[in-house]
Amino acid sequence: MLSRTALEIPREELIRFRRHLHAHPELSFEEHETAAFIVNELRDCGFDEIRTGVGKTGVLATLRGGLPGPVTLLRADMDALPMDETADVPYRSKHKGVMHACGHDGHVAILLSSARALSRIRDQVPGTIVFCFQPAEEGPAGNKAMIDDGALENPHVDRCFSLHLYSGLDVGKIGVRDGAFFASSDRFRIVLRGKGGHGAMPQSSIDPIVAASQLVTMFQTISSREIAPKDPVVVTVGAVHSGTTFNVIPDYAEMLGTTRSFDDAVRRSIPERMERMTAGLADALRMQYEFEYFWGYPPTVNDPAMNEIVRDVAAGAIGDENVVYPHDVVMWAEDMSYMMEERPGAYFIVGVRGPELGIEPQHSPRYDIDERALEVGFRMMTGLALHG
Ligand code: NI
């Protein structure tokens, strides 16, 4: 295995890339300037195998190493969020209403600098590295769009890795977890149809608000009474729309919500449970109902062998003592899960919390990072590429 000291850390470049991207954020599937910036910097260091427009705005750059080895895909997501940045920093967003508040600017900077550095020592790189710059992580499943566009073939990808900058962890550390890292994220819409009437005459109406209230509570028994306590499940009703005023019983109630889980079998079982409860309640209370369920991101599940590689690389790159195993369960979702369903992969988090920064969570309008985290990300990504 190659000594990692062969690569100098391009500190100035990492920061320059990150600040440029931070100042020029773009929304999901609109990452045109970002993609052009990436392609330009890759061409500049001699990359010739570049595919653009993969999954609309994605970029794939292939580096064929001089040593035998697997095909490794390293991925960074590129998109920003529809919100205004409120922090007064020199690299503040120049695009009104758009901000890199999830750290994807840092992800791109890390992967781009890693690609450039590795291209200079191509002869010492084992196997083939596919640098994957992915659009639209924040909702529209850009990862799946890239797979559908052939991102895992030509060359056939054997394994994949991705990281996320994370505000809940100190800079210098990475977080690793066996099994599921992030949850699945699915959505539902339910309509309960009753019969409207005067608020003083419930006997002449069929009240959908009373029914909806009971259904919200009943759904909580999915996690507390139906699924084993070791398997965390969230059923959140995030919106209930019904009625217009104080003395009218409305015709119907609409409920919108999300479900989360870490286990695919548990996940697949949730809509049947919800619809059974909805149908039973509607029948008991003389309602009609509509039930719609929308599959979203699968759980992000680490492959044990790939996770072992992450730990191995981290031991050399940042030291064992800087690898932490976060216990707090975060039921976020992440679309890298699609690639990790197709190929063995591992996902880890990189701490960005520095001594001078307040703790601003991901998606805060003041989100910022301790830029030393970029070096950690660079060490990890190049280390994974060089781990044959
Ligand atoms: Ni993110």
List the helices and strands and how they pair.
Elements: H1 11-23, H2 32-44, E1 50-54, E2 58-64, E3 67-77, H3 104-119, E4 126-134, H4 142-148, E5 159-170, E6 174-175, E7 180-182, E8 185-193, E9 197-198, H5 208-226, E10 233-242, E11 248-249, E12 252-261, H6 264-284, E13 288-297, E14 300-301, H7 304-317, E15 323-324, H8 336-342, E16 345-353, H9 372-386
Parallel strand pairs: 3-4, 3-5, 5-16, 6-15
Antiparallel strand pairs: 1-2, 2-4, 6-16, 7-14, 8-12, 8-13, 9-11, 10-12
Helix pairs in contact: 1-3, 3-9, 5-6, 7-9
The structure holds nickel (II) ion.
Structural features:
Aminopeptidase; alpha/beta; 16 strands; 32% helix; disordered N terminus; 9 helices
Brief characterization of the structure:
This protein is α/β, with parallel strands linked by helices and 388 residues long. The protein has nine helices and 16 strands.
The CATH superfamily of the largest domain bears the name: Zn peptidases
- pLDDT averaged residue by residue: 95
Radius of gyration: 24 Å
| CATH fold annotation of the largest domain | Aminopeptidase
Tally of discrete structural domains: 2
The number of helices is 9
CATH uppermost class of the largest domain: Alpha Beta
Helix-residue proportion: 25-40%
The topology string of helices and strands comes to HHEEEHEHEEEEEHEEEHEEHEHEH
Strand content: 25-35%
Major sheet = 8 strands, mixed
Bound molecules: nickel (II) ion
Shape verdict: elongated
End-to-end separation: 7 Å
**Low-confidence runs:** 1-5
Which structural class matches the secondary elements?
alpha/beta
In the sheet with the most strands, the strands line up as 1-2-4-3-5-16-6-15
CATH architecture of the largest domain: 3-Layer(aba) Sandwich
